[in-house]
Amino acid sequence: MVRIFKFGGASLKNAAAIRNTADIIRQHAAGNQLLIVVSAMGQTTNRLEALYSAYAQPQAGVDHPQEILQEIRQYHEDIARELFGELPETLVALFDNLFGKLETKASSLPHSVPFDEGYDQVLCYGEIISSHLVARYLQHLELPVEWIDSRRYIQTDMTWREARIDWLWTESQVQRQLAPKLKQQIALTQGFIGGTVDGRTTTLGREGSDFTAAIYAHCLRAASVTIWKDVPGILNADPKRIADTYLYPNLSYEEAAEMTYYGATVIHPKTIRPLKSRNIPLYVRSFLNPDAPGTCIGEGQPEGMRPAIIFKRNQRMISFSGRDLTFVSEHNHFVILNACARQNLHINLMQNSAISFLICCDYNPWKVQELVDSLREQFEIKVSDDLELITIKHYDLPTIEKVMKGKKALVEQNTLHTYQAVVPTSAEPLQDSVVPLFEWKPIG
């Protein structure tokens, strides 16, 4: 049976981390058909975003794009030198080729195609460079590894930055072309990226490499997926924010899906569905302690779930009001939600009153601005920035009091099992730009 291993940026951030990754792969290679999915190394994706933005929208005081490009190349070359001792000529030639293409695309695409389309053609290089380097190192260790291009196996539409999978084509291609390779050797490929029918690169959303692993697992009917992280598994809260966190040894697919929807960052929100449809277990384990069992996500809900506390930063709240106090109308709701869908804007919370409708969404200045511009003539619109959405699943009053101590909730909602509140990120007093909003207080 095939097993899928996914390694994120933290597990590849330097030479020592890559050696550790190689040890984990070597330990599991015997007797298993392995497909390895890798992310970009360290903070490379963020630096590629900075590179693309520097070419697209040059600003005074911001790093010159050539400096950013050289920084990215130097980072990868330094890791390679530490791994190989000296850069092999074949790797130098590969870097020349990849970074040459990256520079050409980053400098030309912002002025020739829509911003999001160019973004995908540039950001993909983080995973492409990373996968080549890791594959070359594993081959150097005499492991039977073949580099695979995900763009030839995962076919998508042209929804740039959030591409949708053509599942029938992808599964057929994976079964015909990839499955036979896995019987002979380890395959190593890129997370985060796919390709269109005409050969253009797409991306699956930030942190989308988990989703890539799930796509391959679904198509190969894999025995399991393991995501290797720098945490011991799935905790009930961010240990940087909450003391005495609890490790969930087991979670149901449904519970994990809800946690990721509300903002838990350990796994990508789209990862669960393709695994549940074929009852494929998902393990979240620590690459720092690879012998520990971590968390298993599968069928069945454990009894007595402890509260899960999720903080989702970088939120923006938008309030829409009617101009004649006659707002409550299904048509107005449809207009607003349809405009959000056109911008591919993810809504994390919404609430309506007699004369207004509120949404809380991820901070994306371009999408939000386009949304506001498209609806400005129909509604009065107010926007609040610098907010955080707090979600507590399986809450109790002591947990709410502990988490909300010292915070001012602008909006609160609760259902039988889930409490949510929108609060200012900063402890500073609210500014005039923040909308005075109604509150829905918990009953009892």
UniProtKB/TrEMBL annotation:
Keyword Ribonucleoprotein: no
Pfam families, alphabetized: AA_kinase (PF00696)
GO BP: any one term: homoserine biosynthetic process
Domain (Aspartate/glutamate/uridylate kinase) ranges: 1-286
Catalytic activity: L-aspartate + ATP = 4-phospho-L-aspartate + ADP
Keywords on record: Amino-acid biosynthesis, ATP-binding, Kinase, Nucleotide-binding, Transferase
Gene3D superfamilies xref list: Acetylglutamate kinase-like (3.40.1160.10), Aspartokinase, catalytic domain (1.20.120.1320)
Metabolic or biological pathway, per its Swiss-Prot or TrEMBL entry: Amino-acid biosynthesis; L-lysine biosynthesis via DAP pathway; (S)-tetrahydrodipicolinate from L-aspartate: step 1/4; Amino-acid biosynthesis; L-threonine biosynthesis; L-threonine from L-aspartate: step 1/5; Amino-acid biosynthesis; L-methionine biosynthesis via de novo pathway; L-homoserine from L-aspartate: step 1/3
GO MF assignments: aspartate kinase activity; ATP binding
Coiled-coil ranges (or none): none
EC numbers on record: 2.7.2.4
NCBIfam families per the UniProt record, alphabetical: asp_kinases
Stated family: Belongs to the aspartokinase family.
Protein name: Aspartokinase
